[in-house]
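Re: weekly structure request thread

Next one in the queue (235 aa):
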Amino acid sequence: MAATRIILDDREDASEVAAKLAVAALSRAIAARGSASFMASGGSTPGLMYSMMSEADVDWANVTAGLVDERWVAPDHPDSNEKLLRATLLKSRAAEAKFLPMKTDAATPAEASAERSAAYAPACGPVSCIVLGMGSDGHTASWFPGSRGLTEALRPDAPVISAIDASNSPLAGTNPLRMTLTSGPVCAAEAGILLVFGDDKRAVLEAAFTGDPQTFPVRHAMDGLGDRLTIIWAP
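Done, posted below.
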C-alpha cells in the first residue's frame, strides 16, 4: 500500500496537520501499551510542528523522544538536532517527556554507535511515530547518497543506529560525521510523517517515487513504511 499524500498551500497549515497526526499516533500507542516513542528529524522544516506538539494534551511523562539522526557536534552547537528539539518540542507540556540523546563524548559516531544502539533499542520496538525530512539530494535521516556507511545503514539486519561519513556530500556541510537510525527502526515505525517544504523539493520527491533508493534514499523509507506513512508538502 502506498503512502497518503497531503498537499497544502501554507507551511503553517502543513505543520499543524503534521503535529495533529503525530499527537494522535502517540496517544494511540499510550492507550494501547501505556507508553510511546517519538523519533524526530532536525533541520528548519519541522520546528513549528514540534512547537505545536509541545502544547498538546498528551501523557508526555510516558513518551520517550529521540532523534532520527544527529551531527557529531556538541548539544549546544547551532547545528545540533538535540538543541533544536530542546528548543521546540521539549518544553511546555512536552517538557515531561524522556529524551534519548545521540551525541556522546566519544570522538566519532562509529565509536558510540553500539552503545547508542543499545540505548535506543527499547524505544524502537517499534517507534510509535517517526518524523522524517528530505534534502534536495533525496536524502532522509543521514542517509546521504553515496555516503560511507549508507549501504550498511539500509540493510534490514543493521543495528538500530549506525555511523555515516557524508564527507562527499555537499549538503553535509561542515559536519559530515553523523549518527543515524537505520532501515529497521525507520521502516518498522507504527506511523511515519514525511514533511517537505518548497517547490524544488517537490520535484525531488516526485523523482524519488520511481528512483533508485541508492540515488534517492528517501525512497527506501517510503517503500518500507508504505501506508503507515503520510507525506505532507507545502510550498
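DSSP finds eight helices and ten strands in the chain. The helical segments are 11-33, 47-54, 81-88, 109-120, 150-153, 183-187, 199-208, 218-225.
Next request, please.
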